[in-house]
Design goal:
Two copies of one chain form a homodimer. Chain A has 310 residues and is α+β, with helices and mostly antiparallel strands. Chain A has two domains: 4-166 and 303-308, Ribosomal Protein S5, domain 2 (2-Layer Sandwich), CATH 3.30.230.10; 171-300, 2-Layer Sandwich (Alpha-Beta Plaits). Helix content of chain A is 35%, strand content 30%. Chain A has helices at 64-73, 98-113, 124-135, 143-148, 184-189, 197-216, 219-225, 232-235, 242-251, 273-289, and strands at 4-16, 19-39, 43-50, 81-87, 151-157, 160-165, 171-178, 194-196, 256-259, 266-271, 294-300, 307-308. In chain A, the strands form two sheets. In chain A, strands 1, 2, 3, 4, 5, 6 and 12 form a seven-stranded mixed β-sheet that branches. A four-stranded antiparallel β-sheet of chain A has the order 9-10-7-11, sandwiched between helices. The longest helix of chain A is centred in the middle third of the chain and has 20 residues, at 197-216. In chain A, 55% of the residues are buried. The model of chain A has no long low-confidence stretch (mean pLDDT 95). β8 (194-196) of chain A pairs antiparallel with β8 of chain B, so a sheet runs across the interface. Chains A, B: Catalyzes the ATP-dependent phosphorylation of L-homoserine to L-homoserine phosphate. Chains A, B: Residues 67-150 form the GHMP kinase N-terminal domain.
Chain lengths: 310, 310
Amino acid sequence: MVKSVTAFAPATVANVSCGFDILGFAIDELGDKVTVSLTDTPGLKMVRIEGDGGRLPYEVDKNTCSVAIQAMLDKLFFDKGMEISLYKGLPLGSGMGSSAASAAAALVAANALLGNPFEKKDLIPFAIESERIACGAAHADNVAPSLLGGFVLIRDYTPLDVVKLPVPKGLFCTLLHPHLELNTADSRSVLRKQISLKDATIQSGNIAGLIAGLFQGDLALISRSLKDVIAEPSRALLIPGFYELREAIKAAGALGSGISGSGPTVFILSPGKEIAQKVGQISKQVFEKIGLGVDVYISEVNDKGAYVVE
Amino acid sequence: MVKSVTAFAPATVANVSCGFDILGFAIDELGDKVTVSLTDTPGLKMVRIEGDGGRLPYEVDKNTCSVAIQAMLDKLFFDKGMEISLYKGLPLGSGMGSSAASAAAALVAANALLGNPFEKKDLIPFAIESERIACGAAHADNVAPSLLGGFVLIRDYTPLDVVKLPVPKGLFCTLLHPHLELNTADSRSVLRKQISLKDATIQSGNIAGLIAGLFQGDLALISRSLKDVIAEPSRALLIPGFYELREAIKAAGALGSGISGSGPTVFILSPGKEIAQKVGQISKQVFEKIGLGVDVYISEVNDKGAYVVE
């Protein structure tokens, strides 16, 4: 029997513009690794956390890795123990699905260690449990794409209804992480509680267009549909240079941009690597001009999701 | 040169549940016919209207047929005239896209008469002009599916962005036209002007699921997605038996139901003709119990749209 498994889970972009609270997609390479080992001592134990600057908890009822695995084990008969090591590749609180990637990697590793009693899709509810701990809300728009890869629609939660969507060939994402702190609670509190009927209808048209564009591989339709009239008008105010950046990247051939999760990270979708790199450069200049440093990541949209490394 | 062309355009269901104001689909058989003939006397003339019970206007600036054709002719050099005959197959004010079918048939006939200078899709703006006359609002969710057939998404109006969606095989529609009058203005006025953020998000998830279901041919997903939390809760109150009907048809295997346009017609989507017929019978019983007569039409979803008959 395998005694130790390491899995990788990718960063994700949730709230994809008009897909506010229902859509997410996964990024290549950037992500977290988790190693899970079997022990004879019952119970879970966080034995190592690296790359978090000492900010993440070792308590098993507080760390997203152990919370997710415990939710899974509660569905099985399991009388041994597991030791968990987390290697953060993702910055915390950046809006790139950091806690979700940890949970997804932990679940895929633990599931493999037990001989894969669950399909990947069936791991989503366990990862949602860990999001409740990490973010205070049991949302799935990061954990589902981190596990499954590609674009994932969360149609409903009661019961959970998750739909994997196709990824058009050559779709690249540029992620911009400006060096500013944004409190998720603040980012939530700026949202309007009431939406006009007109805005709700516009949002419906755009999310419908985005889904159709993904299925048809119609990048122009995707570009026209990447408009969020619900969350973005409030949240963009928290990110200096947001609209100036949009003008610049669209002029350079990008399909569109939006806030990743609740920010401050901004995502840009582009038709191909070359434009994705070019808009990365342009973005640096835009943020530099307003005196803001920025990390830039460029990646194809990842259709694979979390996977076992060794 | 052909001197006379007759075209048929089908009935349509707009506001397809969660597709409020952005989605419509076309029905087979049930619809309007329009004959357009060339004359040497310049100008348009409505020469005959049948099947309307004398309710439709002969004035060329008020009839949807002539208004639509005039909008088309304004884009061309045309120094002759046309005589227009309208044969209504659709009841007026029923919520089945009656005015839209007249305009669509008129445009397809006139376009053919001129040697098809326009593609069908390019006729939509002219038909929208006629809807402005007929309904007081320049909406496209009836005219677009009546012209193009199938499910059609109206993503935006400025500029017009119309996306034809695939129709899953074997998808049938049962249309129920209860014998009650519903004023479109009333039906509009009951709508809430403000929507909660939560409801807007639920609606987004459902329209996204419906579009994905249409592309994947996933009837179960279509069924789960046919939920309207925005318009239906208000409008259903104007249609006695609406929710009782839904329970009954879902128990009989239908995918779901909703209000066609602004009502009072109700549409039911079913996987196959047999269930579509069965739920037609059940619907009659439900409406009879509350003392309401009902006309029942059963049809495959029409993927062809308006076409030249002779």
